[in-house]
Amino acid sequence: MGVATPVIMGAALAAQAVGGAVSAYGTYKAGEANAAAANYQAQVAQNNAVIARDNARYASETGESEAYRLGLVNRHVAARSVPGRPRPGSTSTPDRTSRSKALRPNSGNSKR
After folding, report:
1. Most confidently modeled of 6-15, 20-29, 87-96?
2. Nearest to 90 by CA among 102, 100, 79, 99
3. Are 107 and 99 a contacting pair, CB within 8 Å?
4. Domain locations in the chain as residue ranges
5. Cβ(88)–Cβ(79) below 8 Å
6. pLDDT score at 38
């Protein structure tokens, strides 16, 4: 039993050394994987920031275009609603006398 004990002890120490090396290698690879994951997440965040900036620019430009369009519509509506002014595209002026007679009671329109 005396000779086998040092061999077993040597084998145990060798196994322990190999186990430590494997553990260190596993830790190293886990660190590499964590670094790669962090780099990936950083790139995703950067891409999202670019998309958000582009969306904000698009929304701003769309809002400006819509405001311009509404301004044109409002000016058109305002121009059409000015009393005594012909409507855009109209070639004649409105007949104010017939309109005012129609609004007056007993203006000669009724039959007696």
Report:
1. 20-29
2. 79
3. no
4. 32-79
5. yes
6. 96
Tell me how far CA of residue 89 lies from CA of 70, 77, 81, 98, 99, in angstroms.
20, 13, 14, 22, 21
- Measured CA to CA, the distance from residue 112 to residue 100 in angstroms comes to 21
Concatenate the DSSP letters of all residues of 11-45 into one string. Answer: HHHHHHHHHHHHHHHHHHHHHHHHHHHHHHHHHHH
Q: Which two tokens stand for residue 83?
A: 């009393």
* pLDDT in the model for residue 28: 94
Is 21's pLDDT higher than 60? yes
- In angstroms, the Cα distances linking 73 to 38, 49, 57, 69, 93 are 52, 36, 24, 6, 23
CB distance 101 to 109 below 8 Å: yes
* pTM for this predicted structure: 0.44
